[in-house]
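// run 5 | inverse folding | seed 20
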């Protein structure tokens, strides 16, 4: 499955910039299921998402110098000369395998995820310094891996007791 979307984000524009607010999202997902025998099954899923956004912080009122227009909530506008810029990337892989062993099933579930966020935030929200914009930048990079091994009884009609034993690890 492939998905792509472009729009004007939250629609907040700046009265002091030609940059137009925008959000673009691209995503893809692929799945694979397999069952080589009646007693062994598995699946693997990959997902990727990229989101880029240029946005302005909405401002209500007037700047300190009174040189910009007074804005109201309904104007959906800001005063900063620079846009906030965000780029987000997410990749996730999950896998599951199950092996039926008589009255029990042994399962293994694993995942790997990588998350990145690159941001540049405009700091002069009320346009206090004309013709100048300064930015705060930041980057977040995170990876997470999980593993789970589980032994569970198979549910059967009339059975009064079921069990699940498992171990989970994450880093």
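// decoded
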């Amino acid at each position: 499955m492939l998905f792509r979307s472009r729009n004007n984000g939250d629609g907040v524009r700046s009265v002091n910039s030609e940059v137009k607010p925008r959000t673009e999202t691209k995503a893809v997902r692929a799945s694979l299921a397999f069952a080589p025998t009646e007693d062994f099954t598995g699946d693997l899923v990959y997902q990727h998402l990229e989101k880029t956004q240029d946005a302005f912080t909405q401002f209500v009122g007037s700047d300190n110098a009174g040189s910009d227009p007074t804005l109201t909530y309904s104007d959906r506008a800001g005063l900063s000369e620079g846009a906030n810029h965000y780029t987000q990337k997410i990749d996730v892989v999950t896998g599951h395998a199950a092996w039926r062993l008589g009255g029990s099933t042994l399962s293994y579930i694993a995942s790997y995820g990588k998350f990145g966020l690159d941001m540049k935030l405009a700091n002069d929200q009320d346009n206090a310094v004309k013709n100048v914009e300064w930015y705060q930048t930041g980057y977040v990079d995170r990876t997470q891996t999980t593993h789970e091994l589980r032994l569970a009884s198979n549910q059967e009609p009339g059975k009064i007791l079921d069990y699940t034993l498992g171990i989970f690890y994450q880093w």
